Amino acid sequence: MNTRRSFLKQSTGAAAAFGFPTIIPASVLGQDAPSKKITMASFGWGMQGPSNTMKFIDQPDCKVLAVCDVDKNHLKTGVEAVNKRYGNTDCQGYHDYRELLARKDIDAVMLALPDTWHALVATEAAKQGKDIWGEKPLARSIAEQQAIVKAVQKYGRIWQTGSWQRSETNFRVGAELVANGLVGKLQRVEVGLPAGHNDFAKTKDKNQVTPPPAELDYEMWIGPSQMEDYIEARIHKNWRWNYNIGGGQLLDWIGHHCDIAHWGMGMDRSGPVEVKPIQADFPARSDMWNTATKYRTEATYGNGVVMTIAGGHDGIQMGTKWIGDKGFVWVNRNGAYETNIDGLGEIINKRDKDGKVTQGRKLPELGDDVIKTRLYNSPNHWRNFLDCIKSRQPTVTPVETGHASAIPGHLSLIALMLNRTLKWDPKAETIADDADATKLLGREYRGPWKLEV
Length: 453
Fold this sequence. Notes:
The chain has two domains: about 160 residues, Rossmann fold (3-Layer(aba) Sandwich), CATH 3.40.50.720; about 210 residues, Dihydrodipicolinate Reductase, domain 2. It is α/β, with parallel strands linked by helices. It is globular and about 60 Å long.
């Protein structure tokens, strides 16, 4: 387990590495370097894919050359959207990810795929020498995440996890207060996540079993997961609510707020030693949407800090809250920030009777007399990835960090499903004395798919 001091040293070292070479090696950016732009391909044109792609297109030193999707309609929309932005027809569409990854003129990839596909595409991308932006959670299982980490390290690739909150000021400043000891001795952490199911695709009434539409290669879409009947309402965007493909609200969000919690705790390369199930509401496994609608666990770390991970429970507000013997810090999206630390003034955000923020302002940057060690400062998550491709220095959320941030979510899900406490070794990444739980660290792949690094 890393100490806070070693963690801060690592973070500071990574931040200091922002200066990147003006001449980019051809081994990094292809035969036309250094004048050549970073060339990218986008995988998945559903929820996160379009917005991520457009953010990269907005960067002057990036060129998106291809889009991959197994739905012909999505693919056509994606290719047309990219070409429209560039005013040309250079962007090409691909059905098979392996064909696209074989292109030698692609430097980096953006992966916004259902969780079930993360490991196969990411490891192949690393083998093919691509730098990788990968959406959270890192993968559908801990074993798949371990494979991704191994591949990225083995092939020397730059990785950015799509946990973009690390590139927002209030999250960084909140984590810095905790990492620098301003809350005193850290005692508890609360990670508040969403509950229920959201019908992102607006197809809730279309829950009957039907043949897949002609434009969708459903066999490929299911991929390594177990084959099941096609139901429109659990496919695009709504796959999150089906354990065969995704992990529900718990795994969809753990890579955001637990990621920030770990940042302040100094746990980017570690994790809990015990995870205890408290409560979960599970639909029937045969239901169209079968992921937990309400859940709560407690994860205990080696230093005695207890993290509550909850969705749908009163008293655990959305976001990350660190609680020490000298005060607390709470952060959430839209710049929300609150603290009662002595010397930092009154509470930053005002709330209504239901606890919702009604008025807020950003916390001003504190001086070096207060924050003696700074965390990695990334003003723009997408820009950070491109800069690190050039410098070959770690991003603000490298693969090891994305892995560690999701592990408490995976362990929580296993503990809730089995309804028993798990003993976890964060160094060996194993569960002690529980064969059933250990089996759930991985997934059985449907043939002919195999995960090899």
